[in-house]
Description:
It is elongated, with a radius of gyration of 28 Å. It contains 16 helices and 14 strands. α4 links the parallel β3 and β4. The protein is an alpha/beta fold. It folds into four domains: about 40 residues, no CATH class; about 150 residues, Periplasmic binding protein-like II (D-Maltodextrin-Binding Protein, domain 2), CATH 3.40.190; about 150 residues, Periplasmic binding protein-like II (D-Maltodextrin-Binding Protein, domain 2, 3-Layer(aba) Sandwich), CATH 3.40.190; about 35 residues, no CATH class.
Amino acid sequence: MIPHLFKISIIILISIIFSFFKYNYQENFITWFTPFYNKGTVELTAGTPKYMTSNLEYNYLEYDYDQELRFYTLKKSSKAVLDSYYKFIFSNITKSTKVKKVLIFQEESNTNLLKKVNENKKNLAIISAPQMVDKMSSNLPLIQNINFVIVCSYRFIFFIANKQSQISKLIEINNKKINIGLKDSDDYIFGNNIVSNLKINNKLNIQPFYLNPIDSFKQLINGDIDGMFFTDLYPSTVLGGFIEQDLEKKLVIIPIDGINQEVFRLQNIFVEPVAIDLNALPENYLPVKVKELEYTIYRPNLKTFRYPDFIVCNKNAEPRLSFNIANSFVSNLDIVNSSQFFLKNGYNYLAFPSIGNSMFFPTHIGAKIFYNKITINTTMPDEKCKYFVGNAKCTPERIEGSRIVTGLDDDD
């Protein structure tokens, strides 16, 4: 009898060991046999005791990571130096999403950048709103596979003049040598828009140049051109670098003012007027004075416009990828908005739900699932839910939380 039981015990033990090693890559030995584990979805149920979750979470960490993300950005500097803000963002994406490594590539043009994403479902990119609008009107096939994920930053429009040109406002660019920018650039889009806008009520004749930002700054400092349009993050690595080298204080930043704002904003639905603090520039810039134009550390606010940068992906990308990136940003906005980049310019502030607004092209399914999960959409909120939490998902927890915050009870 005993030998027979021993044989049965050995068989059971071997079966258990075999099962353990067969399934340990996706779940631990305990969860395979518990009622808390859903084999169909490979997840624990909501009522699983906490002491059972640790090994499963470990297995997720070990096996549910993407190996790498491939991000494409526009090359702004001749030395291909990645902006410090993007380094910060990519670092946080690596830490807070399930990805082991972020690879960064810089393209010479927005067209090439979009081609990389359009052709490969594993590639992502950072692209500006005006570029997306431009390609929708001029090269629709280029963006047929492009989907929106999230707004990751804002850019700003600058006009910079050589002090000797005596330009103190935009209308004074008449009969001057002005760099509009490379044709596949935001500089070119806004430069053309602003010049056309000024011509509505004024006779205006300029000698246009079509240079990249680095060559344009060099020619501006040398006096070969009088002014240039320039778009970038702010603080700007490129602008700040040239101002640091400008010991003779030749560079003057002119406000984007005196244009027909109504027309300008109809042409560019994504722009917002702002007044940025010039104290975020290197210390040697302020004070500055040209004719009636004067800025000091106490009166540093420059009128301009901002517009968004988007993270985009291929429409066939894994839903988990865009879900994780959107989740990473939204869940860590307190960290992002406390960085030095944001503290130096309040208009860099990223706020939800506005950063989840694609404005004019499709949101990727993974990001869309995330936004639907946490935002204010529900199909049939009851009256109590409308009263306490607007259109939010009508859970008892939300109603109770709103009741506490507002100080109202059910009878009010």
